[in-house]
Design brief:
Elements lengths: L3 H9 L3 E6 L3 H11 L4 E6 L9 E5 L5 E6 H5 L20 H6 L5 E4 L1 H18 L3 E6 L2 H17 L3 E6 L12 E4 L4 H4 E6 L9 E9 L2 E7 L2 H15 L3
């Protein structure tokens, strides 16, 4: 791996299919707008007339089913609620199954709000595990300012280490225990990433990597696969002298 974009290309080669069971063409178009890429094919399937539950099945490159999920649960990611990682709302739909279902599936057009929702899910896992290191990529100082309160609380109330990456210099208020790496060149400024090393436990590792290919719209994936998370973290350590 010689650049963050290499990992996106590697995921692209792992083609998947989303079989959508619905009689509504609008539902298929909605899913295709989020996930239709060289990596994902979205197909509408026959749907029983009168059935009241739309659902989708994800299949790997060999056509083997990887799981099924209701379309309504997917829609919780279209306009997600945003909450701090230490506050889980009792009325909020749990996104854990959705993230597991779409593991390593490329999305093509996520908004900043959707990206923040995925990031919070990863942060929430780190908060629960309460050990290990979070590697967080910020595109600019303004983005760091917006999330400083969250990461200061992590630093002061958890045992999770924090390694923040930013393209430009940052002189805002961060807890002294937070390591900040200023990256040279434009790579850090193009990518939104968040990786949790699991505190040494493979089952707790997770990550998000996305490139901003047009203003406010992101292309990327999230994953719970330890090998992928380790590869990206190793790259960050080697390239940016991170811990």
């Amino acid at each position: 791996m010689e650049a963050l974009s290499d990992q996106l290309e590697a995921i692209e080669s792992r083609r998947k299919t989303l079989d959508v069971y619905t009689d509504k063409a609008a539902t298929v178009a909605e899913l295709a707008a989020q996930f239709s890429t060289r990596n994902v094919q979205v197909i509408q399937n026959e749907y029983a007339v009168g059935a009241d539950t739309e659902f989708m099945v994800v299949r790997n490159a060999e056509g083997d089913p990887q799981g099924a999920l209701g379309v309504e649960q997917f829609r919780t990611l279209i306009a997600p609620d945003i909450h701090p990682p230490w506050e889980r709302s009792g009325t909020e739909a749990d996104l854990a199954d959705l993230f597991d279902f779409l593991d390593s599936t490329l999305f093509t057009s996520f908004s900043r709000r959707q990206m923040l929702a995925v990031s919070r899910e990863i942060e929430e896992r780190a908060w629960r595990v309460d050990t290990g290191v979070l590697y967080v990529g910020f595109q600019n100082a303004t983005a760091v300012d917006a999330q400083a309160a969250v990461y200061n609380r992590f630093a002061r109330r958890s045992a999770v280490g924090l390694q923040l990456f930013i393209e430009d210099e940052f002189d805002g208020r961060l807890d002294g225990s937070i390591d900040v790496v200023s990256g040279e060149g434009e790579e850090i400024g193009r990518f939104w990433f968040l990786l949790f090393d699991g505190g040494g436990a493979d089952q707790s590792k997770c990550g998000l990597l996305a490139e901003e290919r047009e203003p406010g719209r992101f292309y990327g994936f999230w994953t719970y696969r330890p090998g992928i998370v380790d590869e990206i973290i190793d790259y960050l350590r080697a390239t940016y002298d991170a811990r």
